[in-house]
Amino acid sequence: MPQHVEFRLPDVGEGLTEADIVEWLVSVGETITVNQNIVEIETAKSLVELPSPYAGVVTELLVGSGDTVEVGTPIIRIDTDGTGGPSGQGGGSGEVGATSSTAEPPAAVQSPEPEGSGDVLVGYGTSRAAATRRPRRQSSAGAPAGGAAGAARAGSTAPATEAVQAGVEVGADAAAEAAPSPEPPAPPAHAAAQAGEPAPASPAVDVRVLAKPPVRKLAKDLGIDLSRVPATGPGGIVTRADVLAAAERSAPEKLVKKADDDRPWLDGGTVSADGRQTRVPVRSVRARTADAMVASAFTAPHVTEFVTVDVTKSMRLVERLKSDPDFADVRVTPLLIAAKALTLAIRRHPMISASWDDETQEIVYKHYINLGIAAATPRGLVVPNIKDAHRLSMLELAQEIAELTATARAGKTQPAAMSDGTVTITNVGIFGIDTGTPILNPGESAILALGAISQRPWVHKGKVKPRWVTQLALSFDHRLVDGELGSRVLHDVAVIMEHPERGLVWG
Amino acid sequence: MITTDTTGAIPPVGETDDDLIQLLTPEGERVYHEAYTPRIEDLDRAALEGLYRDMVLVRRFDTEATSLQRHGELGLWPPCLGQEAAQIGSGRALARQDYAFPSYRELGVAWTRGVDLRKVLHQFRGEDHGGWDPAEHNFHLYTLVIGSHALHATGYAMGIQRDGDVGTGDPDRDRAVVAYFGDGATAQGDLNEALTFAAVNDSPVVFFCQNNHWAISEPTTRQSRVPLFHRGRGFGIPSVRVDGNDVLACYAVTTEALERARSGGGPTFVEAVTYRMGAHTTSDDPTRYRTKADEEVWRRRDPIDRLEVLLRAEGTGEEFFTALDAEADELGEDVRSYCRAIPVPPASRMFENVYATENALVSTEREWFTEYSEGFLTEEVAR
Fold it and tell me: Domain with A71 in it: what CATH number?
């Protein structure tokens, strides 16, 4: 008669809640011995093989490879009687895991050995007693009650504990005496003990990628190959943010899979009658962007100028700053250098920091630089600005950029952060684009586009050499900025990007 | 020979084994050592078989316990796999009246002190703070905090001095203490303070460092610029480095250190060079920081294999090994069934072993707690 037991996924670490099933090492119908490795699992901490607590025949694998399983979930069913009969209707799950205490087991499975000796402990320690609150006694009035309680304690509780212990002793003795074990013969125990394989297996883990276990788990969950994620953490560690950024880059848009699918392409949209178009109401960011662009494009006559510049020295500066302790907690990018360069250029040519007041027919010159950063967010284009950017050190500027872009990506940019800008930078280079003709943010008179930075053949000291080169584009409002002023500003930005030390002179 | 020379150039860790005391090679051949070979001359074949049995049974228990954690029956287990010789060799050198302070991996020492190893499981199943009566075995409870028990051991040793149980010449009276710790603990403040106090007080304590090469994932090479036993020298303590996988050398070196301590010669620092073949604990995955090749080197230096070769060469018959296999199997099965039935101790258990003698505050709290426990309607004792 089959005796079915289930093995529940234990907490192999300390306080883990789940694990991934990597690979089953046994299959249905296989006869297994106690401590034979049955499955390989991966937790947030480690990759381990689980040995079976039971000997018998595998009747069912309850979870599949690749499944993420909560601690305490039954993962395998084993017939400890060894006949391997079906586990279904007859041996319902009620019997599982508590066989020796139910009914009368047949003689063949009387062994108090693992098979059927109670529930598997799950997680930290065992709490056989339910964690329920017990009622207090109504009154602890004096001697009688206390005496009764004392008697109860002396008369039943303490002996009960002893009885349990005695039972254990007896059970253990019986186990020891039941010499001819009904178990299948154990594997050559001496050899096994000597080899003493520790449980953790040796997976082909690529140790060259440095990342903390939770980050590894995150990458796995998101389907991101860690070895392909650029690391920005100290010592080349891949951080959580790196993985999330990689996931964002690789995440496909929520578009339909089939062309003829009649579901809307975007949330909140409706599909046209012929099923070939999705219509989405214009709202919030998109509406504001549209208004601003129309207003800007058709009120301010745009002029755009371009310059191609060797930024090799700026790239070196970026590398140096990355390893500078002061900059340990911020991202250092070419955008930061460009932002600094732009503020320096504007301070040399403050007349460009101005706006056209149509109502009063005045030109308003701003004594400050509120530097806007165009940020692509899940909700659309947002251009928050850094107030008084001209007063910030390089480090402060980097911190402000980081905070502002993070806030924008989280969709939490406040209206105040987007008002009263004086100039904007748009970093089209991060999309691999050489350059473009940016449209002014309304109320501002200039916008700088930073193109992709790539190695190109460049004449350097009379020889053609591979150099880091980019294109800068500056659009300005020709109503108040003439070609000369716009050119000088763009030229100064280019000079600083090419020779960052120039910033010391002009700063 | 105790190496107390501090004038020579300091060799980097791992580059030279010149100063390593070894009496039994990994190939199972005896090595003659002028100072230490005489110390094992009284170990006859029965004694060697005893040491072998100790190591095999401890390893079997340890392997079973690791499996029990994977079965979900233990919350945690720190395997001592690979360190059996260091623990058995040193543990067997202790006299009955000596006292050992373990860290949390000293299963082999517990065995030599007569502790029922199954009791060690109580703590790792989360049922008990200890599991055995330290006074009964002169084997302290496991200490989980790294290195703190070195201070306890030193304090205990200073207590022995005040009891006058040092240097009397009476072999049944003179006592010593052994503190067991790992390579990682040598970087802890507590251990360094303990070394300071033990040295200036000439306390009867042996600092037994099992350098198992790993402080969890940090290799010894990144913990110290000098071999660890040189740290003992820095405190003016005679220090010796021994092959920790050679049970005979560990026995000989510890015997000498204990004799020095009991006779009033003060502390000794022993560095037993061994290797943690398993994980730091069952929560750790060593494949993240070391390779199979690293482990393979040390597998060939296994402490049990080399003694087996010696025993077979010196005439131990097959029947000894067969019988031991059967004994180990029986032990394994017994451990499994025992573990599943470990009882929850009464809550009042927590008031035991706090102080050596009755303490007013503890007594008051025990009385209060007992009254509180009895104030419930149901019979179940508060847990």
Answer: 2.40.50.100
Contact at CB, B287 and A200, closer than 8 angstroms:
yes
Identity of the residue in A117, A126, A189 whose CB atom sits nearest the CB atom of B329: A189
Query: CB–CB of A146 and B71 under 8 A?
Result: no
> Who among A47, A146, A157 is closest to B381 (CB)?
A157
Q: Is B271 a domain residue?
A: yes
Q: Minimal Cα distance from A182: which residue of B?
A: B333
* Cβ-proximal residues to A178 (8 Å cutoff; 6+ apart), any chain: A111, A112
Q: Which are the catalytic amino acids of A?
A: 478
Q: Is the pTM of this model over 0.80?
A: no
The answer to whether B348 and A124 are in contact (CB under 8 A) is no
Mutation pick from B337, B349, B381 vs chain A, by most beta carbons of A within 10 Å, is B337
For residue A300, what is the domain's CATH number? 3.30.559.10
Element (H, E) at A489: helix A483-498
Our answer to whether residue B280 is catalytic in this structure is: yes
The DSSP secondary-structure symbol of A153 reads I
Taking only the tens of pLDDT, chain A with its 507 residues reads 678 999 999 988 878 888 999 999 999 999 999 999 999 998 877 788 999 999 999 999 999 988 899 999 999 999 988 665 554 444 334 333 333 433 343 433 333 334 333 444 444 434 444 445 566 665 544 444 444 444 444 444 444 444 444 444 444 444 444 444 444 444 444 444 444 444 444 444 445 788 888 898 888 888 888 888 888 888 888 999 999 888 888 765 554 445 555 677 777 777 776 667 778 777 667 777 888 888 888 888 899 999 999 999 999 999 999 999 999 889 899 999 999 999 999 999 999 999 988 888 889 999 999 999 998 887 788 899 999 999 999 999 999 999 998 888 888 888 888 889 999 999 999 889 999 999 999 889 999 999 999 999 999 999 999 999 999 999 999 999 999 999 999 999 999 999 999 999 988
- Per the structure, the count of domains in chain B is 2
For residue A439, give its domain range: 285-506
Whether A58 is covered by a domain: the verdict is yes
Instruction: Kindly state whether residue A241 falls inside one of the protein's structural domains.
Output: yes
Same domain, B265 and B356: no
| CA atoms of A156 and A148, how far apart (whole Å) | 11
| Chain B CB within 8 Å of residue A457 CB | no
DSSP state of A274: T
Q: Which residues of A touch B343 (CB under 8 A)?
A: 161, 164-165, 168
Instruction: Based on the fold, state whether residues A191 and A267 are members of the same structural domain.
Output: no
A11 in contact with B, Cβ within 8 Å? yes
Q: Which stretch of DSSP H or E encloses residue A58?
A: strand A56-61
Contact B73 A121 (CB under 8 A): yes
Of the candidates B289, B312, B336, B338, the residue annotated as catalytic is B289
Tokens of B192: 């360094």
A354, A480 in Cβ contact below 8 A? yes
Q: What is the SS3 string spanning B97-162? A: CCEEECCCCCHHHHHHCCCCHHHHHHHHCCCCCCCCCHHHHCECCCCCCCCHHHHHHHHHHHHHHH
For residues A330 and B346, give the distance between their C-alpha atoms in angstroms, rounded to a whole number. Answer: 55
What is the distance between the alpha carbons of residues B355 and B262, in angstroms, rounded to a whole number?
Answer: 25
Which one is catalytic: B33, B276, B301, B306? B276
Cβ pairs bridging A and B (under 8 Å): 192
Between chains, do A193 and B74 touch, taking CB under 8 Å as contact? no
